[in-house]
Amino acid sequence: MYQFANDYDFPAVRRIGLNMGYEKTVGFEVMVDDLSRPNLMGLRLSVSPFKSYKAFEMGLSGVADIRPAMEADNPDYYGNPWFMAASLDMDFLEVNTGLFKMVWFADTSALAPIYRNDADAVDFPNVKAGPAWDMVWSDGRPTNFGVRSGLRGLLGPVHYNLEYRYWNGVYVPSMFNSLYGRKKVEYVDTFSTYLNNGTVLNDNMGIFGEIYWDILDEDRLSIGAGYHWPWSVGSGGVDADTADYLKLELLVGRKLIRAYGVHGSLKYERSNVRQTISNPGDYSWFDAYTVFSGEIVFPLNPIINLAVVGSTSTKYDTNGDIIWANTEKTIPEIVPVLNIETRINY
User: Fold this and answer.
1) DSSP state of 200
2) Is residue 207 a part of any domain in this protein?
3) Cβ atoms of residues 205 and 227 within 8 Å
4) Which candidate in 79, 92, 159, 253 could, as Cys together with 115 as Cys, close a disulfide (CB 3.0–4.6 Å)?
5) Distance between CA atoms of 329 and 186, rounded to whole angstroms?
6) What is the pLDDT of residue 200?
């Protein structure tokens, strides 16, 4: 899980989640995506075992989505699975010289679905009820797992994160992210197809880099950007045409335009960037592979603000059912949303 957010359909759909934790020598963090109807839940336990070297930390995490196929036309068609994931992470080294801060980290993780019932007997005859352990161990070797290692920290006003990633099979690095809510039915279809067909495993690698820069200060102007550059190595050689990821952020603080106090933000996240450029007829820059949001806030008085909020949201029909963008019914159609709201400051 990396920077998961439950606001991918906000403000059209509003969810109240929970994220809380505690960190000392022993720590924990817990999250729930929607308190009214929990689907995605996560727990991390951590320990710093050496009093003389507190930079070293070990963490054990578990994530479960108990209804990833909930929005599919027929969840039982896929076997109505759970997603269960676990990871082990470590912070090895910390450097802090004032302007320069660095932490060296590494982690490994894996995911396996647990099927509530047998999947469709025609399209998925090999997908049976119960844990799909073939997802993580097959032919005497671990499968569909990921490893990453890198550096994160602070260089002056710039927050940075640079990491190398390795994974194989249909494992998805940082799968539980801001785009997860839009793509989870596609993941259900991909995993069920893999388990049914026994797809040949490719070795995949990638470089992920991310920066966040407080140009003036955090209450004036900040920008952020991130990109995941992946490639795969299979029997046909190296293939760079796999799902990459782009993230852009802009924050204009209330102190930048002091006379009026107008402030706002923009956020754009997208996977399949290269495929969108090379196949513009098959993809759109504002489809289900994108999370976009932006707002402009106008202070009316010290207590009340007027906010104009724009975003994209999943498209629904008059019965409240998702309208799908593909014949497989795994990718939803997306529509723009504009909302004007009043906010009260405390």
Assistant:
1) P
2) yes
3) no
4) 79
5) 8
6) 66
In a domain, 13, yes or no: no
State the Cα–Cα distance between residues 259 and 274, nearest whole angstrom. Answer: 42
If DSSP codes are grouped into helix, strand and coil, which group holds residue 215? Answer: coil
pLDDT digits (tens, 9 = 90+) for 142-160: 999 999 999 999 998 899 9
Q: Is the pTM of this model over 0.85?
A: yes
Domain count, the chain: 1
Residue given tokens 């109807």 in the structure block? 37
Enclosing domain of residue 50: 18-344
* Residue % of the chain over a pLDDT of 70: 98
Q: Residue 238 is encoded by which pair of tokens?
A: 């190296």
**DSSP summary character for residue 25:** S
Q: Are 330 and 189 in contact (CB under 8 A)?
A: yes
What are the DSSP E strand ranges found in the chain?
18-23, 26-32, 40-47, 57-65, 81-96, 100-115, 130-131, 137-138, 141-142, 145-155, 158-168, 203-214, 221-234, 237-239, 245-252, 263-271, 290-299, 304-314, 334-344
